[in-house]
Structure formats: C-alpha cells, structure tokens
Amino acid sequence: MKRIAAVCLMAALHGCAATGVPRTTQPLAWTLGSVEAGAIATQTYRALVQSVEARLPAAAGMPSAILGSDGTPLPCTAETAQRPAAVFDVDETLIWNVGHAYYEARGDAPFDEKSWAAWEREGPAQTVAIPGAKAALDALRAMGVTPVFNTNRSAENAKHTEAALAHTGLGPAVHGETLFLKGDVDGKSGKDGRRAEIVKRFCVLALVGDQNGDFTDSIDNGPAGKRPMAERREIAVARYGAHWGADWFVLPNPLYGGWNNPPMNRDEVVAPDQRWTYKGNH
C-alpha cells in the first residue's frame, strides 16, 4: 500500500526543516477539491466570529488569547481594550496558495525556497481566499475588531503579501501595523516574539492558524529542542485544551506541517494493538 505523503513542503514558512519529499496530488485534491475542506473552514470561521462577539466589549484586565512566558494569558490593558483584534496566520489559514501547490504537485516537486520566494512576489493574483475567511473578517471589522496578520512570509516581500490579501478581499494589511512577517520584532521564525509585540498594541480576542506555532511556540519546542510528537499531542490537550474552540481556532492542513517532519509512515502512527488485517476467509 503506497503511503500518501502529506509533508512539510513549505516548511521554511513555519520554522521547520524541509524534508525533500515531493507533494502528491491526494492531499492537494482534498484541500482544494473536496466539499468537506471548505465546510470545515466555514464552520471554524463561524465559530470564531461567535466567540469574539461574545467577548465584546473588551475590557481592561480580561485575558487575551496570547500567552505570556509562564503560559498564562496576558491581560488586556485599559489602552489595548480600546483596540480589540483577532490574529491570523495567512498561508493555508486565510488563503490557499493554489498556484504554488499546483506547480509542486504537477512535478512531484519538493519544497524549494527559491520557488516559494518567487511565488510570494509573483503569485498574489493566483491566491484564493479559504471558504468562510472573507465573511469572518468582514464581520469582525463590522464589530470594530481589527484583523492582524502574523505570518512567516518574508519581510522582503511585504508589499506582495499585502497585495495577496487585498486580492482575496481579506485586506487591508499594513506591514508593521497589522501585518507581521518572518524576522519582524526579534529576527526569529517562531511567532511568540511577534505575538508579544502585538498584544502590546491590541486586545487580542482570538488566534487563528493551521500550525501549532500559530498559537504558541511551546507546543512544538521545549528546553531541549523539538518535542517528540506524542509529547506535543499531550501538551496540546492537557496544557492548552481550554483554548481550542474558545479563543484558539485551528484549520486542517494535510499539505505540510511539523506533524510530519520527518515524514512518518503508517507503522509510526498506528499502534500495534490498533491494527487490523483482512483474513479473507468470509
């Protein structure tokens, strides 16, 4: 049985190492071709809007969706309470990078930093808003909530990312104000430093993304480096379970991610006592 490779192909965007494993058509077909993918995104964005609306008006002292270094939510201040916001990752959270995904799948190409950088510059007109995203951002803005974008796209291509968000109807986005890019603030690909800066400016009522790092760097990373996958799953549930669906909203991404870095095969993800084989005798 051929393993479906849903791999970390745009890994440089998310701070993990590229695997060199080519993108296959199957995860791309589900992401861009299935009804279910759009339905999940739409219901996630609807739940996000309802959650943010329920937390308004923002007030000094209320917990934000952003965690401090001790893992507890940072409170909104009297000043930031006047500027409620929701923080969004961009790639495969708000937009599908249709053109670049097609390029990789057509040639079974692994992730390549040069082609991705070219896509950032040349691809705004081929990006597509994920179902439910525009309606959600429109609703938030109507409530006086500012969408802030925190993405690991390159700061060198800031104007092109602004253009992609404008093209999909998700903008406006202004680099340094409502758009934060890889290397901004602390020079790192991890997003905690940028979130710490954002929470100084806004009362953040929700975080939205498709990777653990869109919420906190501490799920994937520990004092000794990258955590084992089982430990990540345990931490996400035991330590941060109260946030999911409350002020953290995650969208599915079978195309790439730290969950498959390095690539896992079926024997690594299905425990021996969970396996079944058809005996063919009835």
Automatic annotation (TrEMBL):
Range of residues in the leader sequence: 1-17
One protein family per Pfam: Acid_phosphat_B
Keyword terms, alphabetized: Signal
InterPro entries: Acid_phosphat_B-like (IPR005519), HAD-like_sf (IPR036412), HAD_sf (IPR023214), Lipo_e_P4 (IPR006423)
Claim: Protein biosynthesis is one of the keywords in the record: no
One GO cellular component, as annotated: cell outer membrane
Protein name, per record: 5'-nucleotidase (Lipoprotein e(P4) family)
